[in-house]
Amino acid sequence: ANAIREELISREVLAQAAKKKGPDKDATVAAQMDMARQAVLIRAYFDDFVKAHPVTDEKTKANYQHFVAQMGDMEYNARHILVDKEDDAKAIIASLKRGDAFDKLAKEKSKDTGSKDNGGDLDWGPAGRYVPEFGNAMKALKKGETTDVPVKSPFGYHVIRLDDSRAMKVPTYDEVKDNFRQRAQQEQVSKLVQELKSKAKIDIK
């Protein structure tokens, strides 16, 4: 309690000294003070909004169940080669059938900079991590198989090989419910901001 009291006294003494010196008349300092005041008002507004619009357990559970359905109970270790043209993907498939190494072709041909240097390796992950076109094609493969035809997605054309698959431990609802509640609250706040922006008329110079 004494430490808190001393801190408050120190702040008050410094504030009085600063006021006499008059840095608040400086345009930069004044702008920073306005921004700090604005930040406090915004935080209070958001806090009130969240209290008035609590995320229900039903909403959190529904989001969790949707997440589990998307992720599934398996994870996959796959590789891919991504190109812009379907004919290029077909040529790569033909090269693989002739015995060319997947990792070599990935390094030479793939435009996915995040995986090409690792031979197209995407590491372990659930099918829900990928766009549906990719995830569904990957799930249909058996261990060691490569797609016979190019897989089209919004990113281009993929040649996919499944290296392995295994059962995945899905986190329980109790383990992740707080994360889902926070995410739902953030989505509510983002929606509020977008609605306010759509109605506001602000002239920023």
Most strands sheet:
4 strands, antiparallel
Q: Order of strands side by side in the largest beta sheet? A: 2-1-4-3
* Separate helix tally: 7
Could you say which structural class the secondary elements and strand pairing correspond to?
alpha+beta
Structural shape: elongated
Ordered list of secondary-structure elements with their pairings:
Blueprint: H1 2-21, H2 27-52, H3 57-71, E1 74-83, H4 86-97, H5 102-109, E2 121-126, H6 132-139, E3 151-153, E4 156-167, H7 173-199
Antiparallel strand pairs: 1-2, 1-4, 3-4
Helix pairs in contact: 3-7
Characterise this structure.
The protein has 205 residues and is an alpha+beta fold. 57% of the residues lie in helices and 15% in strands. It starts with a helix and ends in a 6-residue tail after the last helix. Helix 3 packs across helix 7. The mean pLDDT is 91. It has a four-stranded antiparallel β-sheet, sandwiched between helices.
